[in-house]
Amino acid sequence: MLSHVFVGVNDFDRAMAFYTPVMARLGLVLRFTEAQRPWAGWQQPGVARPLFLVGRPFDGRLATPGNGAMNALLAADRATVDAVHALALGHGGTCEGPPGLRPEYHAHYYGAYFRDPEGNKLCVCCHEPA
Q: pTM for the full model?
């Protein structure tokens, strides 16, 4: 359904230090990085789309987090949700909701919420039973 998701950042080096371990733990591989632009993109191994991209906004203005905007990253299991949330916090992220069941979404929804160092809100979630 999605081609790509782009998250605007102002400090590319800080963003790479944050997103590199988070994406690796989710099993996503770095497809490219261009420090001079700057931007980078990750994907599932062997799959061209969707891409998760971070970089400076195309219009050259400062990146700002959107109010109500959030991107949710799919995890294979609940242990991965826990690990990614801990990695995010350990690499400069802030907690927006600890890992746990969210039965208001559905019986098996297990998610965690955090912001990257730029303030962009992210979720990592698993929809499978324990």
A: 0.92
